[in-house]
Amino acid sequence: MQTMTGLLGELMPEQRERLRSLGSEAYFDAGERIFEEGDRADRFWILHTGSATLDMHVPGHRNVVFDHVRHGELLGWSWLFKPYTWTLGSQADSPVRALQFDALSVRVLCEEDTELGLALNHAVAAVIAERLQRSRARLIDMFGPYAPKDIAAGLL
């Protein structure tokens, strides 16, 4: 029996299957934008293969990449919180194969099955907490006392 990891691994088998039933396969070529900061967040993905960057627009500079999403991980959580707008952007780092979910359908499922909704919210909260820690570490690397001066100076 295969052990489930990532977001789906946090759900009970019945919950996992109910959620999976709403998913469809999605593919992105390396370099393809998956979503843009500020656009409507109406879907999310769980990556099967490949990786995607998470980036943020910095006025006057190119987008700053601060994290990567990999196999089994959730890509996108803005679909869960009003106003359902992407707070970041994302691009396929390599060819990506993922399970894609329609956000509205998942939110309706969570309202109908409150146990699944609570479990999914807890799982997404854990992802957010982990990403915040990784982002914090990245910021320390970029702007801490031993950061390369050209990187820190270029972003200010």
Automatic annotation (TrEMBL):
SUPFAM superfamilies: cAMP-binding domain-like. SMART domains: cNMP. Residues 7-76 form the Cyclic nucleotide-binding domain. CDD domains: CAP_ED (cd00038). PROSITE patterns: CNMP_BINDING_3. InterPro entries: cNMP-bd_dom (IPR000595), cNMP-bd_dom_sf (IPR018490), RmlC-like_jellyroll (IPR014710). Pfam families: cNMP_binding. This is Cyclic nucleotide-binding domain-containing protein. The lineage of its organism: Bacteria, Bacillati, Actinomycetota, Actinomycetes, Kitasatosporales.
